[in-house]
Automatic annotation (TrEMBL), chains A, B:
Belongs to the thiamine-monophosphate kinase family. The keyword Nucleotide-binding applies. Mg(2+) 4 binds at D30, T43, D74. Gene3D superfamilies: PurM-like C-terminal domain, PurM-like, N-terminal domain. NCBIfam families: thiL. GO terms for molecular function: kinase activity. The lineage of its organism: Bacteria, Bacillati, Actinomycetota, Actinomycetes, Micrococcales. Pfam families: AIRS, AIRS_C. This is Thiamine-monophosphate kinase. The gene is thiL. InterPro entries: PurM-like_C_dom, PurM-like_C_sf, PurM-like_N, PurM-like_N_sf, ThiL-like. SUPFAM superfamilies: PurM C-terminal domain-like (SSF56042), PurM N-terminal domain-like (SSF55326). It comes from Nostocoides veronense. Residues 152-252 form the PurM-like C-terminal domain. Its EC number is 2.7.4.16. Substrate binds at D52, E269, W316.
Length: 323, 323
């Protein structure tokens, strides 16, 4: 990358990001202009090499797909439709130009797939060895936003998308690289969701239209994210353990039972959508009921139960990565 | 920072960022909601420790003020009024909590000063020794945006704000830390604009209303940014050397003539606004005329002249920081 100037590199990168022209003005000026009808949903999420990805596991295209979906899932979890992004790359000048171009090509492909445009961004240099990608994503709200705080006793808790797939993939990759219990070739289906998570983005606005009372995406693990929803709403969430059987069964095809269970309950970077609905009849197709919303007993705090037992928060914490 | 969980740290940081509630929803949900009347201006800019700031020169409050103004100047340079930001911190977990809290307090103060709200953000961990701050900033357009591409032959080139102040500050700091030509105590006025640049934000919309045909902010140096405007508009810009006398005189009170001249022509992080106007009568108060817009001669390229000589682009390039 040190062979090119910033402007020369941008001249190579920008054509790779061309997409649907939703915005009045794309990259190249001081700022982008996002069209909107009343309100814009905005979020941002960052990935750092060595913390959020490893170059020996993730291709530049994987990194692009993963940081994009993490952002778009946050937009969908508000009940919104993603429309555009800004992308910031902060890279060691010794980063191969090929890495940057593959990242940009991958990002462009994924953005076209989701009908999202790259409205702008920033390119900056990092200390030796450092690579960091930040996306800010924007979306349109077809109706009212769905916050985390609207769950009420009597409502139904439901999820769309799997639980624990990304965690299983990470455990398989870590096991393999530690020479651990997973021998031989890595099962592609087991690691796929970790390297390139998908998210049922279209279900966000569908849930909103169906009357979802609260919603978020599972980015730091079911136990931690469900607890956030419980606290924001001031309620108890009670998860029916039997509802997790499909996820546990899938995880146990790859991992020992205890580890499989930990992946389903605490695995992050899943980007499935977790929501509450006023009643079972309002839960849309492609969602499955996980449990119910209850009143916080006198003297107790909002929290999550798995059947009769409190579910400890054990998901991802950026500053305490031990799981 | 490693003594707190992410949620605990956020609980300390968020109250420091409280500001005008322009947005329907602030930090704490999956995404923020930005109110808008038709279109939102969006930009993003990053600062990395060791590249964009040094901890021995810049306090956490300085870093917050500097990255904020770099973003708000981009918004103003479109002719827009800044309204809100998202802020991303990517920090080594060993970063002192005090640094984070001082950064947040400084950012909150500056945001209130500019009537901008912190709508959300992200907190992530970095490899040892790394600290990085990204802001995405948003603004409202009172009228049509002012792009870089609208300068036409016959228009007048003007600037509001100084040129070279940040460059002089950097040269003084570098000279002092190299035991160089600057001895004794550093002149506070000389380094102030480098550590905490200001930007005439309000002049962005004023220039737009006055009919500015093109505009940008001087973030990478006059020679480089003027060349960008020239290329985007397909014109020649001719700067009158005598118009730079006030900047040169100020710079020469601190530095030898050659270095002073390089600071005025090439110094970055200045965040003054550079614009073209249809004629001298339309240049608003607090702007000074720097030169004029001319036709590109047949067979030549868009470029910038200083009096009769081409002005070489020598400003900041992230991947070739030598000046």
């Amino acid at each position: 990358m040190a062979d090119l100037t910033e402007d020369e590199l941008l001249a190579e990168v920008l054509p790779l990001l061309a997409g649907p022209r939703r915005d009045r003005l794309g990259p190249g000026d001081d700022a982008a202009i996002l069209e909107s009808a009343g309100a814009i949903v905005a979020t941002t999420d960052t990935m750092v090499r060595g913390r959020d990805w490893r170059d020996d596991w993730s291709s530049p295209e994987d990194v692009a797909a993963k940081v994009l979906i993490a952002n778009l899932a946050d937009v969908a979890a508000m009940g919104a439709v993603p429309t555009s992004i800004l992308c910031t790359l902060v890279l060691d000048p010794q980063t191969p130009v090929d890495w940057v171009l593959r990242f940009a090509r991958g990002l462009g492909e994924q953005c076209r797939r989701y009908a999202v445009s790259v409205a702008g961004g920033d390119l900056s240099s990092a200390p030796a060895g450092v690579a960091m990608v930040t996306i800010a994503a924007f979306g349109e709200l077809p109706g009212d936003p769905v916050l985390r705080s609207g769950a009420r006793p009597g409502h139904v808790l439901a999820v769309t998308g799997p639980l624990g797939r990304s965690g299983v993939g990470l455990a398989l990759l870590e096991g393999a690289s530690a020479g651990g219990p997973v021998g031989g070739e890595l099962p592609a289906a087991g690691v796929a969701h970790h390297l390139r998570p998908s998210s049922p983005l279209g279900q966000g606005p569908i849930a909103a239209a169906a009357g979802a009372s609260a919603m978020l995406d599972v980015s730091d693990g079911l136990s931690r994210d469900a607890a956030r929803l419980a606290r924001a709403s001031g309620v108890v969430l009670r998860i029916d353990g039997s509802a997790l059987a499909p996820d546990l069964n899938w995880a146990e095809t790859y991992l020992p039972r205890d580890l499989a269970r930990a992946c389903v309950l605490n695995g992050g970077e899943e980007h499935s959508l977790l929501a509450t609905f006023p009643n079972a009849a309002s839960v849309p197709a492609y969602w499955r009921v996980l449990g119910r919303v209850e009143t916080v007993p006198d003297g107790a705090n909002p929290q999550v139960f798995l059947d009769e037992r409190p579910l400890a928060e054990a998901g991802w914490d950026h500053f305490h990565p031990a799981r």
